[in-house]
Amino acid sequence: MVEMNFNMIGYDFERGLRVLKEGYSSAILALEQKSDAIGTELLEYRQYLVDGGEPDEERDEDGFLLWDRERLLEMDEEVCKAAVVEARKAFVIALYHHWERATRKDTGYHGRVHTKLLSEATANNINVQPELNKVRHLINTLKHNNSEPGLQLLKSWPEVLPPAFEPDEQTDWYHEVVLTDAHVNQALDIIAGSGPVAVRL
Which of these, 79, 84, 96, 95, lies nearest to 178 by C-alpha position? Predict the structure, then answer.
């Protein structure tokens, strides 16, 4: 009979991943629903104008346009889309920090040397995924917004940067990172497979 050992730290790690994923999924769903509703309203308003409806707008005493409903709806739609992009970045950062905290707690290593943390994890029978480094490069690029982690990211995970991307001294690395749902799910899978587990065989 195989002896199984329950690991509370691993349980908390796995539960924390589920909590983070649930919060992220709910936020993305709400943003997408709001964006869809705004998009529908925008299309209907444009059709209303095509059909000869009066523009919903305000002008000053000289006739200059102050605002119009179409532009306001466009801006609201842009905000929703930008919020989705930011939510993805915030989620992967939260995932990685959750992994760091759990792994430090499980191994007892609380230093700042990443390679040492990995070796301690391996020694503690934590099966760290080989691709974890590219997630680390992503997180450091988003957090520090400079070329050192950025160039590492470009080498290890170029798919999260624009095609034919050529950075220079003025590059805003945080802005250049574009995460899709597929990238987020990949990061989640890598992190989930790299932390302490609830049941050790």
Answer: 84
